[in-house]
Amino acid sequence: METQSELQHASTLSLPEISSAKRWWWPDAKTTILIPPGIALIGLFLVPFLIMGAVSFYYRVPDGFYVPDFRLDNYLLFFDPIFLTALARSLILCATISVVCVSLAVPFTYIVSRMRRSAQVPIVILLLCILTLSEVILGFSWTILLSRTAGVSNLLVHLGMMDRAVALYPSAFAIVLAMLHFCFPFAVLTIYPPISRFDKSLPEAAATLGATPIWAFFSVVVPALRPTIISALVLVFVFALGAYLFPQMLGRPEDWTLSVLITDQAIYKSNIPFAAAMSVFLCIICLGLIAGITKLTKAKGTQG
Amino acid sequence: MKSSYLTPLFVGSIVLLLSLPFIIVAGVSFNEKKRLHFPPRGFSLDWFGDVVTKSEWLQPIGTSLVVALLATAISIMIALPVCLMLWRHGIFFAKALFGLGMVPFMLPPVTSALGFLIFWSEVGAYGSFWALILSHGVFLVTIPLIMISLGLETIEKELLDAASSLGASEFDLFRTVVMPLITPFIFGSAAFCFVLSLNEYIIAFMVAGFTVETLPIKIVNSLRYGYSPAMAAVSLLSVLSAAILFAAVARFGDLLKMVGSLDQSD
Q1: Out of A125, A150, A275, closest to residue B246 by CB
Q2: Using the beta-carbon criterion (under 8 Å), do B201 and A134 form an inter-chain contact?
Q3: Per-residue pLDDT at A14
Q4: What ipTM was reported for this prediction?
Q5: Across the interface, do B114 and A275 touch by the CB < 8 Å criterion?
Q6: Residue A285 sits in which domain range?
Q7: How many domains does chain A have?
């Protein structure tokens, strides 16, 4: 890997400057080195999305294939109650997850970022593990944690708070728990850089003026971090929209979100044009939200 | 002061809640019989033995490891030149590619997965091993782009000026100054990509779910046929290997800086 990039670098640097000066259409050395990554990113990422956009307008032949066409049928299916309820459910679920995660993550990150480095590292490792394990292992862990034979209800029975152990899934509650677990580390790592760089003298000043640490946190730290908090809310919301396995593993079909609906249509109902239309819709929502929030925080940054 | 015991309590209970699912999974994997009980009934390591000896598990583990290794290599080979050219020369094309590389993580993975599914079936490579590896490699590129850029930002301009005033060529500069300084960041991002690819489900499922059996696909498929402590054992092994890998990254580099904390106070 290293040697390869060195070789790439070496070859482009040894290219004599004349070649770029003599032939105007020939890319210069610095651009040449970007051709392989360019092919990969444009050819294998941008192009698939453009094709998906095109397929969303195609005609779906009833036996499961699709043929090129230009029609809005797939988008008109959005008025179907199945889609509308899944959309409403996804938005409410992800908004809830986002608000709860960020409200917990802000004080948590603030405290952790002020701890000794040696104490911060294990916490960051735990967060990274949860974040990178993806939904398969987390979903599986939650099905065990909420099961009848091994779950928390056994603990509650031991404590005399319940009569007998029960399974706590499938339920919307189980989905919410698992998604909080999955999204919380993402929320923390999103706000960790700005919070760790946060000026410590502000709360200290508040403390010398007699504020208790908790009061100083809410009256000084939180208002100063408002742009960070707002963009974290949006990013966690978008991240939560991507959850796909939790609603399937821990919920019933009536708990399915848009992400599940897309896969269901694409793989099991083989209606790829409709799945593509939903996918395009989801992309537009997410990119719109992120573009909006970037613009907002940037405008704030240049003013202040 | 009131908060002196409140803050450790708050952080401690959140850390406990975050680890709770893993504690239960660990407990369940030690059950003697093929039942999921917690606390475990009896103690046996047979289920771990099954995971590391039976081809039923070894095969998907091997597949996942190969996919993750190659996807990680591809991801870094795409990201490194883009980061270098953007940082050193600020080329517009590099800037555009960097922006494009941020997109996978802004979108729900399902949408990328569907894009890949449609693309590979149009190309005629749907379900192939290489389609999966390339999809993962391109999808994960955001991680090395961000982390290598963070690494490059830590290099002081004076250092480069000093080296070039001593007569170092651009290539010498890269080999002797830049590369050693960003190597921890490259390895850090490689660790992230590796673990993410190893555990990635939705893209693997949509691109090659019925032909290439990766470990996450194997786990989800076997959930349909009922639970066994072997699944808890394989999950625990995944958690532990991720934790060990990240701990190694923290040991050989500055993990906190890699996740974006630029605070160097202690």
Answers
A1: A125
A2: yes
A3: 47
A4: 0.89
A5: yes
A6: 67-303
A7: 1
